[in-house]
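Exam prep: given the inputs below (a chain plus N~2~-(3-carboxypropanoyl)-L-ornithine), describe the expected output before reading on.
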Amino acid sequence: MKHVTHIKDLGPEGVEAVLAQAEAWKQKAPGSLFPGSILGMVFFNPSLRTRTSFEAVMLRGGGSAIILDVGAGVWKLEHREGAVMNADRAEHLKEAAPVLSRFVDMLGVRTFSQGGGDEEDEVDPIINAFRKWATVPVVSMESAREHPCQGLADVLTLREKFGTTKKLPVTLTWAPHIKPLPKAVPNSFLLSAAAAGCEVRVAHPPGFELHPAVRAEAEAYAKATGGSITYTHEQDEALAGSRAVYAKSWGPTAAAAFSPNDVTALLASYSGWMPTLRTMSRAAKDAAFLHCLPVRRNVEVADEVLDHPSSRVVDEAGNRFHVQRSLLHWMRSQSR
Ligand SMILES: NCCC[C@H](NC(=O)CCC(=O)O)C(=O)O
Ligand SMILES: NC(=O)OP(=O)(O)O
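Solution:
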């Protein structure tokens, strides 16, 4: 049984296989890939793209999807072993995951960071509880540590524009927000771009470092694929010569050390990091702009960037369908 909840479940070879199949099927659609199969989708957090793209993959492949919103028509779920369940969580994943596995062929799970800090996100407790107790393959729809399907769609988008991602200079830049957001998306872009051999430059203000374990993993992929990774606190330095600018907001490294008011003030103090056309002018002439969406216009990214022809954000979201169709098929082939 093959779970894919983190890029390490694929490795650079798996990333390559899934992307190659996604590209091929984008050119020539396959026949019915999932006839009679059911994907169960468990959402602890909201979604527009992930929800519709996974369901579309199943419906267009001749299968179907059952969507559960935890806490909205479905019992709130406990994942901690040994928990005394005397609060609002009525059901434990020890039962819920194997029970759901009786009804569906695969399980997708979306569960953001619980806000317990980067160390807890590293452990990724909820998605790993599904891995432990489900008896069907589990696919991540974004968890605390990673959003692998987003990373795959990001790389496919780069590949389509530039032909290859080998040694492609790309900048992952931190962007401002009104609240501290999870690090799953920046982690996944870093890991996927490194696994695809990109020259990744990461720019963020001091205090927004990504977890050392994520950085070490990305470094290992870059080493294996001929890519490279550099980190800077100067956005302009990263942008010079970049062929793509990937903007994403994320919270401070030691989020737990700040009061909510302090975090808001800290985020506001870096409003100059919002990408504008001036930001894009520092990158290569043909640079593409990427963002996972949803994006808060004129807080995280200026209208003039999102509305500019260089913006690939809608194509990037559209590629979620293509990488997920390929990924679910790959997982099934690995499980047999
Ligand atoms: N799945 C894509 C991004 C999801 C999430 N964004 C958000 O929660 C945005 C919420 C807001 O803007 O209020 C994140 O950053 O990981
Ligand atoms: N990018 C992404 O995962 O979007 P949703 O949160 O809308 O699914």
